[in-house]
Amino acid sequence: MNNMKFISKSLITALLLCCGLSVQAHDYYASEFGAKADGRTLASASIQAAIDFASDKGGGRVILTPGNYLTGTIYLKTGVTLHLEAGATLLGSLNPWDYVKDAYAGWTAMVFAIKQDNIGITGDGTIDCRGFEVANNLVQYVHRGIFDDDLKLDRPYEGNRPENIHFRECNNVVVSGINLKNPASWNQQYDQCRNLLIENINVDAKAYWNNDGLDVVDCSDVIVRNCYIDAADDAYCFKSHSVDGVSENILVENCVGRSSANGIKFGTFTRGVFKNFKFKNMTIFDTYRSAITIATVDGASVEDVEIDGLRSIHTGNPIFIRCGSRREGKVTPCLRNVVIKNVYAEVPLDKPDAGYNYEGPVEDLPRNVCASGIQGIPGIRVENVRLENVEIIYPGRTNVNYAYRGHSPEDLAAIPELEKSYPEFSNWKELPAWGFYIRHADGVEFKNVTLKVLEEDYRPAIVADDVNGLKLDGVKIIQKDAEGKEQIITNQCKEITITE
Predict the structure, then answer these.
(1) Given phi > 0 = left and psi -120 to 50 = alpha, else beta, which region is 88?
(2) Burial, 140: exposed, middle or buried (Cβ in 10 Å; 0-12, 13-18, 19+)?
(3) Among 16, 129, 220, 253, which one is least packed by beta carbons within 10 Å?
(4) Is residue 280 exposed (0-12), middle (13-18) or buried (19+ Cβ within 10 Å)?
(5) How far is CA 218 from the centre of its chain?
(6) What is the mean pLDDT of residues 73-85?
(7) Over the stretch 322-373, which tens digit does the pLDDT of each residue have?
């Protein structure tokens, strides 16, 4: 993680640039360009005029004073920071025709920035797309035949629904302090940006389907810190849309997430390079799928990932590390050099996101609680994963009538690889371990790992199948009334070391 110093220097430069805009350049009030804060008068053109003017004059802040500014799409320009004072809301128009689907980006958004430098969104105000209403109004236009969309599952395509923020190929970006609410699609997407700081933001993204909290796509030199995200879809999500894409030097710290999908996720689009990621002091709660999902299923190279300090409470699955191969003829993926340490996790028996808008699918239940997983596939192995100072508490109370999995060599061989499936821990419905299932991996080390199950579970704690170099040092397995039970099962494994 030596490159983290480089991240800090780069982002300090970005901060100085943006701060310089605030101190040295002019402040321009959107109201002076005709923007009305009455929540009824469309203000898009007036706010855009202020942004264009400020950019033409060398940069500055465009300020929204308290009130509701009804808007469709606006574009940030080089040198401009959009500053929302406390009580100011950029309020999404309910008319889908007020939003632009940018031809270059291929997405629809309230606030776009395309190939701009030294830009920002700051303040204590709010961006609220009112996505549920916008998306359903769009559905009506599709049904009436005046908007072209396939309407899969009666939902418009993600790219046709407005995001709150979409920045593409921008440099020196600061998004700080704001509240982001109710997107119609992904909430905020940063695509191929450099020197990106996202801090102290509050996200409520539960208005509609596909409401990711944060999507960082093929970006480098990124800091995300002190953020709170409550999302219907993945909370902190890192993607690669291009085989030439590079995501590297990324730090996420002191953040909280809740999701009806995954808390921290790599993917699912994973086509380029992910390198040098660090997560520190994270909290994930009430999350339907995994607290941590690190997946490469489209040919991406994922390496040098460290997660240091995670508290996962009431989350369906703590850790899911997965290689797959969804695309024939593409580059072979790799996933290696992952360190996960200082973790405490509690897995509930009930549905973790019950009662939230847009819950995870009920059809996956009932089932026995799934183990954490480190899973490659034949020919694409997970390499060098170390877990240290980890405690995970599972509920137990398994029912063998759901989908019994044994742990004999024949039973293990019968577990499907599912290498082309969308990567979710629940795909197998039932795995042969209650704590960790490890398959097709090299160099897996557990140090000071405690696995505890509260009630009866017929399965062993750990099953390792086709693992080379398995080291278990100080692993504690706690299961009441299970004295003499074989809790560690290995099959076709080499170089196994187990020490107390």
Answers:
(1) beta
(2) exposed
(3) 16
(4) middle
(5) 13
(6) 98
(7) 999 987 666 678 999 999 999 999 999 999 999 998 999 887 667 789 999 9
Token output for 283 = 């909290």
- Residue 196's SS3 state is strand
pLDDT, one tens digit per residue, over 102-128 is 999 999 999 999 999 999 999 999 999
Strands (E), 330-435: 334-346, 372-375, 382-394
Is residue 201 predicted with pLDDT exceeding 80?
Answer: yes
Can you read off the two tokens belonging to residue 110? 């309230």
- The count of other CB atoms within 10 Å of the CB of residue 408 is 11
**Maximum pairwise Cα distance, the chain:** 78
Bridge-based pairing of strands 126-128 and 88-92 is: parallel
In this structure, are strands 214-217 and 236-240 parallel, antiparallel, or unpaired?
parallel
Give the model's confidence band at 8: pLDDT under 50 very low, under 70 low, under 90 confident, else very high: low
d(CA 432, CA 370): 9
Q: Are 234 and 265 in contact (CB under 8 A)?
A: yes
Over residues 363-405, the pLDDT tens digits come to 766 778 999 999 999 999 999 999 999 999 999 999 888 888 8
Beta bridge partners of 83: 63, 122
The stretches of 191-279 forming alpha helices (DSSP H) are none
pLDDT exceeds 70 at position 14: no
What type of residue is 141?
Answer: Y
DSSP state of 152: B
Q: Do 294 and 262 form a contact (C-beta atoms < 8 A)? A: no
**pLDDT beyond 60 at 23:** no
Nearest to 274, CA basis, from 247, 242, 237: 247
Phi then psi for 485, rounded to 5 degrees? -70, 140
Q: How far apart are CA 72 and CA 130, in angstroms?
A: 11
Q: What is the CA radius of gyration of the chain?
A: 24
Distance separating alpha carbons of residues 165 and 195, to the nearest angstrom: 17
What tokens were used for 107?
């997405």
Asked if 441 and 379 count as a contact pair (C-beta separation under 8 A), the reply is: no
Average pLDDT, the chain: 94
Residues of the chain by 3-state class (helix, strand, coil), percent to 5: 15, 50, 35
What are the DSSP calls for 421-489, one per residue? S---GGGGS--S-SSEEEEEEEEEEEEEEEEEESS--SS-SEEEEEEEEEEEES-EEEETT-TT---EE
Q: Which two tokens stand for residue 363?
A: 């059809």
Q: Pick from 223, 316, 350: which is nearest to 278 by CA?
A: 223
Q: Which residue has the tokens 């989350």?
A: 315
